[in-house]
Write a structure and sequence with these properties.
This protein is of the alpha/beta class. Helix content is about 35%, strand content about 20%. The chain has 2 domains: about 130 residues, Thiolase/Chalcone synthase (Peroxisomal Thiolase, Chain A, domain 1); about 220 residues, Peroxisomal Thiolase, Chain A, domain 1 (3-Layer(aba) Sandwich).
């Protein structure tokens, strides 16, 4: 049975000071259900994470979801929601539920971010050394530069492509195009990563509706097929950590194998762009270019909507939307738009039939979750 994504909704605002996280989750959940032509009474599977209170119990009550037969609260940071889509597709395919709602929101700009949480077991051993999130990614970037000669200018090409796309998105937080020089001349945050190599922070959220094939046939909306899914966790290996690879080196091949596809079949990629180095290493690990060749691959407009491998055509986490450090949801929504032929006209990929979503959670320099989705247009 082919499982479908029938509804998708991204909150249009990037600063939401007058609402709570549950209120925003409700807005995006109802938005996605309306997009699919369904309502809360149709939902029997609920997927979420980092929800305040008693998680899925309190949130399902708030949303009016009765009769749930499947619930998942997997936490994987920025990989959480590609994970949830994969889990929802498996649950629907197994008959555990028929209409699954995947929803998230976060309000860090308004002081209501939900990712602070309890401290992990690593905290007593690492916190004293002053490590930060940018510093962890900078370690990976510096190692990649050392091993393969990757340059700051090559990393900057990724931001340039994202900014080019964001100018056509009226909801994007940053809409001004930038040049390679703008990126490398922006303030250094953690050597070698400059400010414009780093993602933005926003309030916001999004939701998706995953349904069984027979349900999809009753709906008026164009749907998107879930073709393949893979996930993994890559951690510090007690210090034996290879900083030049991401978890996509494992999750990607699993998703391609399940879908029966190869990188050559992909028309569009949505890659979690927490930092420019995340994108470059993901492209290598997913097989779009050889390891160490990512810098050359992204140079010259490759990632633009009219390039060889269009990426993040909404502006991505670098320019558009990055609610609560969980970019996987918004990456998935833009892939759905592309496969429905509903992206902004200036960046719509002609004949887009196969899309890839890559989520990362955690920190490339220490421990990360990774999830890969392969999605197909309705006629794929």
């Amino acid at each position: 049975m082919t499982v479908r994504i029938a509804g998708a909704y991204e909150h249009p605002l990037r600063r939401i000071p007058d609402r709570t996280v549950p209120q925003v989750i409700a807005e995006v959940a109802y938005g996605a259900l309306a997009d699919a032509g369904l309502g809360p009474a149709d939902v029997d599977g609920f997927f979420c994470s980092e929800v305040p209170g008693l998680g899925s119990v309190a949130m399902s009550d708030h949303l009016g979801l009765g009769g749930l037969s499947y619930v998942d609260v997997t936490e994987g940071g920025g990989a959480s929601y590609p994970m949830h889509v994969g889990h929802a597709a498996a649950a629907v395919a197994a008959g555990k539920c028929r209409v699954a709602l995947v929803a998230m929101a976060g309000l860090p700009l308004s002081g209501q971010g939900t990712t602070g949480g309890a401290r992990g077991p690593e905290h007593p051993y690492e916190a004293g050394y002053g490590i930060t999130t940018p510093a962890g990614y900078a370690l990976a970037a510096r190692r990649h530069m050392h091993e393969y000669g990757t340059t700051a200018e090559q990393l900057a090409e990724i931001k340039v492509a994202a900014a080019h796309h964001a100018q056509y998105n009226p909801n994007a937080k940053l809409r001004d195009p930038v040049t390679v020089e703008d990126v490398v001349n922006s303030p250094m945050i953690s050597d070698p990563l400059h400010r414009l190599d780093c993602c933005i922070t926003t309030d916001g959220g999004g939701a998706l509706v995953i349904v069984a094939e027979d349900v999809a046939r009753t709906l008026p909306r164009r749907t998107v097929k879930v073709l393949g899914h893979g996930e993994t966790i890559k951690h510090s290996e007690i210090g034996r950590l290879d900083l030049t690879h991401t978890g996509a080196a494992v999750s990607g091949p699993r998703a391609f194998a399940e879908a029966g596809l190869t990188p050559k079949d992909v028309d569009y990629v949505s890659i979690y762009d927490s930092f420019t180095i995340t994108v470059l290493m993901s492209l290598e690990d997913l097989g779009f270019c050889e390891k160490g060749k990512g810098g050359a691959f992204v140079t010259g407009g490759t990632l633009r909507a009219d390039g060889e491998l269009p990426f993040n055509t909404d502006g991505g986490g670098l320019c558009n939307n990055h609610p609560d450090s969980r970019g996987g949801m918004i990456r998935t929504i833009e892939a759905v738009r592309q496969l429905r032929d509903e992206a902004a006209p200036e960046v719509q990929v002609p004949g887009c039939r196969i899309g890839l979503v890559q989520g990362h959670g955690g920190n490339l320099g220490f421990r990360t979750a990774a999830a890969t989705l392969l999605l197909g247009a309705e006629d794929a």
